Amino acid sequence: MIRLLFLQNMVISVEILSKSKLEKCEKRTDSNDKLNCTTKIVINMAVPSGSSGGEAFVVAEIVEVEENSTNNMQTLRVPPDVPFKPQEFFVKTRKCQPDAGANVVKICERLRDEDGHIIEHTRVAFSTY
């Protein structure tokens, strides 16, 4: 069981996408028998973007972990602050204008009849590789 505490600047909810436990063991140079083992918990989470768009911090404190092998509750260290700044990107696409030629939109143009009039609901697409 992992319980997280989130503080500061309008972080309403955080979605935990995945969690796993990593154990790394290294052989000590001074002993033939003993291994130096460390266990880490890795949490992958999604933080929703706020409406303000300002920089905020997520302070995640792993309060306690229950080991499957024992009934002991362990208190783990507090991870450092995780800064995040929500970003929104706006891209204006160049859609085919009803009267635009290839010199305007570059990638698409309307078909024209023999007199130069635009044929409705048609488009010539050019692709470059």
Verbal overview:
The protein folds into 2 domains: 2-84, no CATH class; 91-129, no CATH class. It is 3% helix and 36% strand. The protein has 1 helix and 9 strands; from the N terminus they run βββββββαββ. The strands form 4 sheets. A 3-stranded antiparallel sheet has the order 1-5-6, with no helix packed on it. A two-stranded antiparallel ribbon has the order 2-3. A two-stranded antiparallel ribbon has the order 4-7.
Low-confidence segments, given as residue ranges, are 1-11
SSE-based structural type: mainly beta
Tell me the overall shape: rod-shaped
Radius of gyration: 29 Å
What's the structural domain tally?
2
Distance between the termini: 52 Å
Adjacency order of strands in the biggest sheet? 1-5-6
Mean pLDDT score: 62
Largest sheet: 3 strands, antiparallel
For the secondary structure, the number of strands is: 9
Quote the beta fraction.
35-45%
Estimate percent helicity.
under 10%
How large is the count of helical segments? 1
Compressed to H and E, one letter per element, the order equals: EEEEEEEHEE
Keywords: Cell membrane, Disulfide bond, Fertilization, Lipid-binding, Membrane, Signal, Transmembrane, Transmembrane helix
Membrane topology: Single-pass type I membrane protein
Organism: Gossypium darwinii
Subcellular location: Cell membrane
